[in-house]
């Protein structure tokens, strides 16, 4: 062991407090880096594995491909794996069967590999359904059916049924299908389109898009033996090759080798050598060359495989990650640098003496770098262990949150990636060496004269020297010596303040280090608040998903049958609600009914946010015959969504807003409340959180004939129009005309009845009773009491078929002791009701997951804030404590010169106040700049955000800095207990 090494180790042993604080600082820095990197790696690995297991490894799915397109993709070097599933044909179910089974039954083959390594037993390119009974089909004469078909009798009593069974469907039974190809005439008259049952529901001319109903051509009877039943998967289109459109419930699966060229062929593939989603799209679309084929891209998988999907949220998260990484590194460098800077200042005399006996500058530098290396040997491994333990602890306490985030039944295992740990260790070493390098160079420049005179502590800055010289000269001209306190410091604090002021005027590295330490600490605390502020929109959006804020466990939604009377539909809903409450453990919570009407909203009622939303929705529609949402005067022209709250929920809302109950509960003269919050997705894929209304007022509503006959041709209403003179009219198109659809305008009084409605108040938050409707995604939206729904208070259209307060959708919310059992019971009850189109949705689990996802985000914010606070406290405590301890000899000399305890405290109070003010100002400037970068990052994905500092965190930063200053000074004074010059000089011995 060399002399310099021995000297360094002896110095570390002697200054145990400084050594421990330095190790803690290095460990904290490394722990934070390890925790951040390991958390990201663990979540990335967990999400990737969950996606593979639940959604498959496919990256692109095209539901129908030509033989030429398949050949192009198979030949491409960028296609790694490829499998196909053929659609052998479809058949129509009888009208009776379609009430419960859907309108169309389709036969599809199991996926077959044409390139790569996919197999049903191997890598999950797409999800293979789980067998509930029986086995997989092994030849072209066998099929497997979805489990809801079990024991059903199809085609009973119909001689021309397209789908018929030999009896109740069971393993070993038979099913006959009149299979053919689904086709429909193109709306533009360009021929016939071939349909597939993955993306196309039953197409009827009644929908107004196609001139004729679809039909099945080239049909022939095929009979299959049922060999098994499979469980339906809850997955989005593309995950599961058994997925089908809403009107195609039955997908029968046969063996992979069935089918032949010419059948509708769906294709799954993975790519290689492409780094962006756009490049993947270009590859696939170029190979397909058919504008009627719409591939699905697996964006969930792209983001975990490092493929840029072009979404603003990706850029936001990366920018926030970059800012946080910069903050962590700056905090780490500040914490470690301060420790070494003070350490070198502490040993100025020692370095000078070593220099006087022959130690070279290189040896002195190496001694400091060796100290950094030695402390790193202890602090870095300790930091890695603490970081991993912290991640494991956080993950264990938040298993439910992360399970919800991942959509799995378990939590997130800590994924210890050697590469990630190596990066953390390497980055920690770089930070450590960077922090120690400047103090090491400073140590190498110390001379024997510096050690004797302690010039680094007493040297005045040039400005202070000039000022002192000027004061001395003025005093000499006046015949008086420049003695005693001067300036504000002298007036307020007397001689102690004068001494403190002179001490602060020196060009002292210690003073600059203390101020820098305070500034970084203030910035860390404020930036923690900024991170919380600009990550909160992510948590907020999770909290409004899936009815998370409604308090409901089960919802039952139903739409009105076509041509149904409103009174009959309302009666059915009330009857269903009464019978539902008779189910044990089920309790009615709230309800709403939903309708729509066309209106003209005055410009003064629409805010600038509302104008942005309306213009964006126009751009998203992109239809050349859709009128703009705003007139030249700025009036809104278009449809308004109306939510009718049940009377109890309406009364609760009125009371929450402090409104006059009498005015807002009068059904004969209804007054509406506008929903003044929009949380949709804009055309650039950013998330909006805006207030679309500027004020209340009176709105003109128009009940319009949506179809008019002109010369035996049917014209469809497309929107309200207002010319430059302010004349209002209704626009209609004849979409069956050749080429571009013909458009005409009808005077509004000929086709519509006008009615006015007062918007009496604005609600900035979505009531819980309509949370399940994703109400904040509607623009514009108003609320009324349910007593108005379906009433004759509003106007009727001239044709008499529609009323202002008609509704087409209703939602009933329930709480349940056992939500799973209640969902089953309500589904059975709904099947017996007169609601022809209904949906029972178990929101308890989904809303819990949304809440837990929000909690996961909030947990990250909390942990980040706590770690930043610890670093800030350690930074200030370490810097100030050591700075004061280094002045033990100075303090002893002042005491020996007669300075009392009170004067001594006033001197330190002045110095600390100066440090605090400068540190707070610089720290707030740095925090403001960092917050601005976070704000710019968040603006990429979240519209409507406003820039601002998190003032509660600013207050916390000030309080923490003052508290740590006080504790640090008290602790340092306790440690620097030398009561005489002799004691101080003895303590300075090497």
TrEMBL record:
TM region(s), chain numbering: 317-340, 372-398, 418-438, 514-535, 856-877, 915-938, 950-973
The protein's name in its UniProt record: FtsX-like permease family protein
Topology relative to the membrane: Multi-pass membrane protein
Major localization class: membrane
Keyword Transmembrane helix applies: yes
Source organism per UniProt: Raoultibacter massiliensis
Keyword annotations from UniProtKB, A to Z: Cell membrane, Membrane, Transmembrane, Transmembrane helix
Family that this chain belongs to: Belongs to the ABC-4 integral membrane protein family.
ABC3 transporter permease C-terminal domain span: 323-446, 863-973
Pfam families xrefs: FtsX
Keyword Calcium in record: no
InterPro entries linked to this entry: ABC3_permease_C (IPR003838), Macrolide_Exporter_MacB (IPR050250)
Subcellular compartments: Cell membrane
Superkingdom of source: Bacteria
């Amino acid at each position: 062991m060399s002399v310099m090494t021995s000297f360094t180790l002896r110095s570390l042993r002697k200054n145990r407090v400084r050594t421990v604080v330095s190790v803690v600082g290095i460990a904290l820095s490394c722990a934070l880096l390890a925790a951040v990197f390991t958390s990201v790696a663990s979540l990335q690995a967990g999400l990737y594995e969950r996606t593979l297991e639940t959604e498959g490894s496919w990256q692109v799915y095209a539901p129908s491909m030509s033989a030429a397109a398949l050949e192009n993709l198979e030949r491409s070097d960028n296609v790694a794996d490829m499998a196909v599933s053929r659609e052998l044909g479809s058949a129509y179910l009888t009208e009776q069967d379609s009430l419960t089974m859907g309108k169309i039954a389709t036969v599809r083959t199991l996926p077959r590999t044409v390139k790569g390594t996919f197999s049903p037993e191997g890598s999950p390119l797409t999800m293979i359904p789980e067998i509930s009974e029986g086995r997989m089909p092994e030849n072209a004469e066998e099929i497997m059916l979805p489990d809801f078909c079990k024991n059903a009798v199809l085609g009973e009593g119909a001689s021309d049924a397209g789908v018929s069974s030999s009896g109740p469907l069971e393993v070993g039974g038979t099913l006959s299908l009149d299979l053919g190809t689904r086709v429909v005439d193109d709306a533009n008259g360009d021929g016939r389109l071939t349909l597939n049952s993955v993306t196309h529901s039953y197409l009827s001319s009644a929908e107004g898009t196609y001139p004729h109903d679809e039909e099945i051509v080239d049909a022939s009877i095929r009979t299959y033996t049922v060999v098994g039943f499979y469980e339906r998967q809850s997955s989005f289109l593309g995950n599961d090759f058994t997925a089908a459109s809403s009107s195609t419930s039955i997908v029968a699966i046969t063996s992979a080798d069935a089918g032949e060229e010419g059948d509708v062929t769906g294709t799954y593939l993975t790519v290689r050598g492409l780094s962006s989603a756009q490049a993947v799209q270009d590859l696939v679309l170029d190979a397909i060359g058919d504008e009627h084929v719409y591939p699905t891209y697996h964006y969930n998988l792209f983001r975990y495989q490092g493929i840029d999907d072009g979404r603003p949220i990706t850029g936001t998260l990366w920018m926030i990650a970059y800012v946080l990484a910069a903050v962590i590194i700056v905090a780490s460098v500040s914490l470690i640098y301060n420790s070494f800077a003070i350490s070198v200042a502490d040993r100025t005399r020692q370095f000078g003496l070593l220099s006087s006996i022959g130690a070279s500058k290189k040896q002195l530098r190496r001694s400091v770098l060796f100290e950094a290396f030695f402390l790193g040997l202890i602090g870095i491994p300790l930091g890695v262990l603490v970081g991993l333990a912290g991640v494991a602890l956080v993950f264990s306490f938040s298993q439910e949150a992360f399970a919800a985030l991942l959509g799995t039944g378990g939590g997130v295992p800590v994924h210890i990636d050697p590469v990630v740990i190596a990066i953390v260790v390497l980055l920690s070493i770089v930070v450590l060496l960077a922090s120690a390098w400047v103090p090491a160079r400073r140590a190498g420049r110390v001379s024997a004269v510096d050690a004797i005179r302690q010039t680094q502590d007493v040297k005045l800055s040039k400005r202070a020297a000039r000022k002192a010289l000027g004061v001395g000269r003025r005093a000499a001209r006046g015949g008086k010596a420049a003695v005693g306190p001067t300036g504000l410091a002298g007036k307020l604090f007397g001689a102690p303040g004068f001494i403190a002021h002179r001490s602060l005027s020196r060009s002292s590295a210690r003073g600059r280090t203390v101020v820098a330490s305070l500034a970084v600490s203030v910035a860390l605390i404020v930036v923690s608040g900024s991170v919380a502020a600009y990550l909160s929109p992510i948590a907020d959006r999770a909290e409004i998903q899936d009815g998370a804020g409604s308090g409901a466990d089960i919802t039952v939604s139903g739409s009105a049958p076509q041509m149904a009377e409103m009174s009959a539909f309302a009666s059915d809903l009330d009857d269903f609600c009464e019978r539902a409450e008779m189910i044990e453990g089920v309790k009615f919570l709230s309800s709403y009914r939903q309708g729509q009407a066309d209106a003209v909203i005055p410009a003064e009622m629409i805010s600038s946010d509302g104008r942005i939303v309306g213009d964006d929705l126009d751009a998203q529609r992109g239809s050349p015959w859709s009128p703009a949402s705003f007139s030249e005067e700025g009036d809104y022209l278009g449809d308004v969504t109306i939510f009718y709250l049940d009377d109890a929920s309406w009364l609760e809302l009125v009371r929450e807003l402090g409104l006059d109950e009498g005015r807002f509960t009068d059904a004969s003269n209804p007054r509406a409340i506008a929903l003044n919050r929009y949380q949709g997705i804009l055309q650039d894929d950013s998330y909006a959180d805006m207030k679309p209304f500027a004020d209340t007022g009176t709105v003109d509503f128009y009940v319009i004939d949506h179809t008019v006959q002109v010369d035996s041709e049917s014209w469809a209403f497309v929107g309200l129009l207002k010319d430059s003179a302010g004349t209002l009219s209704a626009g209609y198109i004849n979409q069956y005309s050749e080429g571009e659809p013909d458009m005409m305008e009808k005077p509004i009084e000929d086709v519509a009845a006008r009615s006015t409605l007062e918007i009496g108040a604005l609600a900035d938050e979505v009531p819980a009773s309509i949370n399940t409707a994703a109400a904040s995604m509607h623009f514009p939206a108003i609320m009324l009491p349910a007593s108005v729904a379906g009433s004759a208070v509003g106007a009727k259209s001239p044709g008499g078929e529609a009323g202002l307060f008609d509704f087409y959708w209703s939602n009933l919310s329930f709480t349940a002791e056992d939500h799973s059992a209640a969902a089953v019971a309500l589904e059975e009850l709904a099947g017996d009701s007169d609601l022809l189109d209904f949906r029972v949705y178990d929101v308890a689990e989904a809303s819990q997951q949304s809440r837990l996802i929000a909690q996961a985000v909030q947990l990250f914010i909390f942990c980040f804030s706590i770690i930043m606070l610890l670093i800030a406290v350690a930074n200030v405590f370490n810097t100030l404590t050591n700075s004061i301890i280094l002045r033990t000899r100075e303090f002893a000399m002042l005491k020996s010169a007669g300075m009392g305890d009170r004067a001594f405290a006033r001197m330190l109070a002045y110095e600390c106040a100066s440090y605090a003010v400068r540190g707070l100002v610089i720290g707030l400037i740095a925090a403001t700049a960092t917050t601005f970068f976070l704000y710019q990052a968040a603006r990429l994905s979240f519209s409507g955000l406003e820039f601002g500092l998190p003032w509660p965190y600013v207050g916390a930063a000030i309080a923490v800095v003052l508290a740590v200053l006080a504790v640090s000074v008290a602790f340092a004074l306790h440690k620097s207990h030398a009561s005489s010059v002799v004691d101080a000089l003895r303590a300075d011995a090497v």
